[in-house]
């Protein structure tokens, strides 16, 4: 099956039946992919404020009413089943990793969908900027940083970034292309010198898979939608649910 050309509806259906449980980088090309964060109503306003104060790592695509699990950005979808992997957190710790959160659903839960950098990867590839993790069918490498986010209420912590090796001659074009997509993190926040943002070893990502960086390449870092779950962990939120890193909701929105 050509996963790159699979429709969002077909990919979500495979997630719902359990036939697909992998990462979604490079799949359903041309469509917006979204990170997921689900919180009890009592924390929803603080988290919404956190997203507004930190739009680079937390660009909002949609916020659903409490108890609602069918998003407007993906008609017919079910947020409880149509993502290939979820993490359930209790008091800041991963308590469960599952492919279906129906058993954990509550009427007071508020779902947030946030833009994902997988969405602009098609534009980079179409611009003749190869992406190694996509070619190798691997998850993008993601790292915790010492870049502090603006706190809001209960939520505080540092940014997570995704890294893609880019040939030196292509960096300016990668910045220009990704900058056209502010709703899915936009332009990079840092280029080269990972130690300057608190990353000591690129061979050991905190999430995702390490990829080789060649001599003519620079590590380029984008704000990452894993930031909210890392912040929720640091903030010791009693209960929340997120996607597993690299496993996104593919929406019906077109990137362009």
Give a verbal description of the structure:
- The protein folds into two domains: 3-116 and 236-254, PSTPO5379-like; 118-228, PSTPO5379-like fold (2-Layer Sandwich).
- β3 and β4 form a beta hairpin.
- The chain has six helices and eleven strands.
- It is an alpha+beta fold.
- Helix content is 20%, strand content 27%.
- The radius of gyration is 17 Å and the shape is globular.
- 45% of the residues are buried.
Main sheet properties: 7 strands, antiparallel
Beta-strand content estimate: 25-35%
Second CATH tier, the architecture of the largest domain: 3-Layer(aba) Sandwich
Class from helix and strand fractions: alpha+beta
Short note summarizing the structure:
This protein is an alpha+beta fold and 256 residues long. It folds into 2 domains: 3-116 and 236-254, PSTPO5379-like (3-Layer(aba) Sandwich), CATH 3.40.1640; 118-228, 2-Layer Sandwich (PSTPO5379-like fold), CATH 3.30.2040.10. The protein is 20% helix and 27% strand.
Write the layout of secondary structure elements.
Blueprint (H helix, E strand, L loop, with lengths): L7 H10 L13 E10 H13 L6 E4 L22 E5 L2 E6 L10 E7 L2 H9 L5 H4 L5 E8 L9 E10 L3 H8 L11 E2 L25 E7 L3 H8 L4 E5 L5 E6 L2
